[in-house]
Amino acid sequence: RLDVASSFLQPSPGRVVPPRVLWVDEASFPMIVHTSIATTSDAASWEQALVDAVDFLTAGQVVALPSETVYGLAADALDRKAVARIFEAKGRPSTNPLIVHVADEGMLETCAASWCSIAALLAKHFWPGPLTLVMPKKPIIPDEVTAGLNSVALRWPSHPLMQAVIQRFQGPLAAPSANLSNRLSPTSAEQVGAQLQGKIPLIVDGGSCSVGIESTVVDLTGSIPTILRPGVIHRGVLSALVPSIQMASGVMDPDEGLAQRSPGQHRQHYAPEASLRVCRWEDEPSLLGRMEHEGLDPAKTCVFCHERFPSSPPFMRVSVIPNDPEAYARALYAELFQCDQLRPQSILVEDPPSKEAWDGVRDRLQRAASGW
pTM for this one? Predict the structure, then answer.
């Protein structure tokens, strides 16, 4: 393996800042006027995107990068000022920690103070991939990354472009979803730009995300392995390897102002601009009757369904989502984004199945609907 841990002992100012990115005025951040879009459609544009991304990261700036889960807003995880720029751009509360992304074992050794047998087992089966492990942190990880806690959330992403950027940068990257705080997570460069245009210097377009929702988060700092945030790697799969694993109970109230062990714990999260409600209906007449009772206009309502399909008229939009948890997750945010562009009064979502494989989807929908 490549052990590059020693390179992280050098302070961030020691890194070389390419002259062509010195135009960034720290005093004016986050009021950046121009946001560049880097394409990756061929070998030449791929290489240029890597160069541009690493240049900005080395200069202490933030860059939107694709991953297999959702697009992330990346910055040098060991640079306090760079990490602060993530929070500024997103409007993210400081109590909400960031996931640190790595691309080799040396980076793990830099970040994690210990590495237990369960972590090794889960990493062997699911890394690179959409699984985040919360471990005790080393002092080199700034408190800004971890909300002041003594633990750090770590992930080894599988997206080839994200991996390439981390490897070229030669350091771990803090990278929450590239959206405004509590809003829809983006699964395309277009969706990133709709929220962060003018707030960040660069978006790297790597196409649509293959997973579509954020990673599963497992806390390994306590005596019992605990799933803090469900995802496509669900409890049924994890318990086959770790029988003692459990689901966390309850959700955070954002007004409590307490540091969270993991991202994605706030009661309201991953939400569209329109009000979203999760409900059941037997047929179209029962759905229309419920809407009339709640004072909702069908012509101003988008409907998400996977089993019971109403006709398009009289609704503003009807989205038929695959009745498969992984395919549903892949389509979820993109469809919600399309609905939001229509400026509906409300979005009604057919209640997903209660099976474990749907835990990630159900979690995102419940948090998206909690504000209404």
Answer: 0.87
